[in-house]
Write a structure and sequence with these properties.
Shape: globular
Largest sheet: 5 strands, mixed
Number of domains: 3
Radius of gyration: 22 Å
Number of helices: 10
Low-confidence stretches: 1-11, 35-45, 349-353
Order of helices and strands: HHEEEEHEEEHHEEEEHHHHH
Strand order of the largest sheet: 4-3-5-7-6
CATH class of the largest domain: Mainly Alpha
Helix content: 25-40%
CATH topology of the largest domain: Neutral Protease, domain 2
CATH superfamily of the largest domain: Neutral Protease Domain 2
Structural class: alpha+beta
């Protein structure tokens, strides 16, 4: 804990000054706040009390740092934007900053989670990673974004679902710890798709009926015949391109893909629990983050085994729904119907996949 003579609420007030003559002071105060802040970030807001006295209030907020790898593969790269800093002349930097903030907002404002680890973990991201790098990933500590090749993929910061997806791998890491192979790995991927989609839906205030349910929408260049990497609503329909082939995701357990590739098909078979969540959210209606998302989040915290399979996860979601909404609730019925709709039942029928 840094114990400075100048209180942080005063530094915050100074850092917000916009008058040109205080430009240097505002910048200096901002840099001081960044230097002094603890690992757990706090955002100060101000109000006037009944006696017209200024009162500072602490509100937990994100602590974002965006770095630029300058097309190298050395992390973290040069720091180019920090928490509270103004937008810069680099769209990838600002998209990463905003996407990290949108993800923090969903978890904090809806589920009461303080960042990825629940303890205020700083949200760090690196853009312009590698040369024509066609991916984005969470490495256990930070988000890393490639710029794409310009022919198939554009920049990976352009989709907030991608950012929400990758950061949710961190949430899963700190909660359920689902092993990244076979059915538990497909669930790991699906959970990231679920909350990646909810990050976008919450930011845009979309209902289950109006959301696209697409993951990575806009990543493909106009040269590709496809709309996204995956569709949660209709797995197997996200793209159909002469060069890429047809989206291979199965939409139900009857078409589960048995393979040794991709850690047992984790990106393929995630389509099955993805569609189950969509069916649950669609049946409940309204905003998907409110009930369906809450049930899935409760499930992550329920003590799952790392090797939990589809049937085990389905059973856990039913228990979570019953605990929150009651055994005979419409929410429990929706969860049961969602899993039944993809051929998974909580009695172990899916464990044969």
């Amino acid at each position: 804990m840094t114990q400075g003579i100048v209180p942080p609420y005063l530094l915050t007030r100074i850092s917000q000054m916009e008058a040109p003559e205080f430009h240097d002071a505002a910048g200096a105060a901002h840099r001081t706040l960044l230097h002094d802040q603890p690992r757990r970030s706090a955002r100060l807001t101000f109000r006037l009390d009944a006696a017209d006295h200024l009162v500072a209030e602490v509100d937990s907020g994100p602590n974002r740092t965006i770095s630029d790898a300058a097309h190298s593969e050395t992390l973290p790269g040069r720091t180019v934007r920090t928490e509270g800093g103004s937008p810069v002349q680099d769209v990838a930097v600002d998209e990463a900053y905003d996407g990290l903030g949108a993800t923090f907002a969903l978890y904090h404002e809806i589920y009461g989670r303080d960042s990825i680890d629940g303890k205020g973990l700083p949200l760090d991201g690196t853009v312009h990673y590698g040369t024509l790098y066609d991916n984005a990933f969470w490495n256990g500590e930070r988000m890393v974004f490639g710029d794409g090749d310009g022919q198939i993929f554009g920049r990976f910061t352009s989709s907030v679902t991608v950012i929400g997806h990758e950061l949710t791998h961190g949430v899963t890491q700190y909660t359920a710890g689902l092993a990244y192979r076979d059915q538990s790995g497909a669930l790991n991927e699906s959970v990231s798709d679920v909350f990646g989609s909810l990050v976008e839906q919450y930011a845009k205030q979309q209902t289950a009926a109006t959301a696209s349910w697409l993951i990575g929408e806009g990543l493909f260049t106009p040269q590709v015949k496809g709309v996204a990497l995956r569709s949660m609503k209709a797995p197997g329909t996200a793209y159909d391109d002469p060069r890429l082939g047809k989206d291979p995701q199965p939409a139900d357990f009857a078409h589960y893909v048995h393979t040794t590739d991709d850690e047992g098909g984790v990106h393929l078979n995630s389509g099955i629990p993805n569609r189950a969540f969509y069916l649950v959210a669609h049946r409940i209606g309204g905003y998907a983050w409110e009930k369906a998302g809450q049930i899935w989040y409760d499930t992550l915290l329920s003590g799952l085994k790392p090797t939990t399979d589809f049937a085990g996860f389905a059973a856990a979601t039913i228990v979570a729904a019953a605990k929150r909404y009651g055994d005979s609730s419409a929410e429990v019925a929706a969860v049961r119907a969602g899993w039944t709709g993809v051929g998974v039942t909580a009695d172990g029928a899916a464990s044969r996949g």
